What we know:
The structure holds 2 protein chains of 2 kinds. Chain A has no helices and 11 strands. By secondary structure, chain A is mainly beta. In chain A, strands 2, 4, 5, 6, 9, 10 and 11 form a 7-stranded mixed sheet that branches. Chain A starts with a strand and ends with a strand. Chain B is 0% helix and 54% strand. Chain B is built from no helices and 12 strands. Chain B has strands at residues 3-5, 10-14, 19-21, 24-26, 32-38, 44-50, 56-58, 64-68, 73-78, 87-95, 101-104, 108-113. Chain B is globular and about 45 Å long. In chain B, 38% of the residues are buried. Classes of the chains: A mainly beta, B mainly beta. At the A-B interface, β4, β5, β9 and β10 of A face β5, β6 and β11 of B.
Amino acid sequence: DSGVTQTPKHLITATGQRVTLRCSPRSGDLSVYWYQQSLDQGLQFLIQYYNGEERAKGNILERFSAQQFPDLHSELNLSSLELGDSALYFCASSGRQLRNTGELFFGEGSRLTVL
Amino acid sequence: AQSVTQLGSHVSVSEGALVLLRCNYSSSVPPYLFWYVQYPNQGLQLLLKYTSAATLVKGINGFEAEFKKSETSFHLTKPSAHMSDAAEYFCAVSEMDTGNQFYFGTGTSLTVIP
């Protein structure tokens, strides 16, 4: 158990819909990362938050948005869903400091299927 | 900018044989390097990490990796493969100066043949 909790584990929805994925980081971790894993794209970095502020953006689509709340949990919002958005979405947390040599701790992922 | 290249998206070995998974990185500053493993329907778990201490790093489940600066490599090895080693393996690089951004390779799927 990594200590990172993601909900829901599975989600099936239709094209055009909007979903929200939730992540609770390890206790005390201030950084939260979101990754998308699909068969053809591998593990793609989406976005990173540190203590409520956006720190880095990767290949995140404009239809996607995220935020980190004061209690440090994070949500990834996916809207106007397309078939190609079907993937496994991982949340990871690390570091009680912005700069550290620690590793990422991954949740078990949220599997999104868009029909 | 950092990047990670994993040579071979699929590797097959016989049970008991040597496992060698290749990882090369590019980084403008001394990097921190990681190997993660992902079992089916699970998240990624840390196997081992290099953070500028000993160049030969030992991890869990008998895996180890050697940091070779001259070759910009961080290959993962295990002397004797076990059936339970079948999984997806990811190499990752991080630079402290960039506020802990992590960059992952495309992964190598390891198959162990009985």
